[in-house]
Amino acid sequence: MGNQLKQEALLERTKSSGTEGKVEEEREDLDRESEVMNKEKLDFDLIRSDILKQRDMLEQQRQDIKEEREKLEVTKTDLQVLKEHEKIQFDEINKDKANIKDLTLHLHTEKDKLENIMSMIVFKT
């Protein structure tokens, strides 16, 4: 019986050391998984940080584009005003050209009349 007790005690220790070995393996597995998860968390934090930086850059670019668009709208309005002013000036120039042509024609007519009168005076004298 003493031998049987020794065998049972040995069997118990073997089971216990087998269980301890399994527990140790599980603990090591959990530690490795924890390390992997911590590394993945760090990776995700870096990715998140990069995404936030890119978002901020895109927001700044969007704001820059908005400001540029507003400047272009102001420039467009200024150009429209200048174009209208130019049109008015061309209309005035064309009116002045027409007036000059009329005055030139009138001047030629008056010149011809004056020459006729002078010719008559010369013939009469």
TrEMBL record:
It comes from the Eukaryota. Residues 1-35 are annotated as: Disordered. Residues 9-35 have a biased composition (Basic and acidic residues). This is E3 ubiquitin-protein ligase TRIM8.
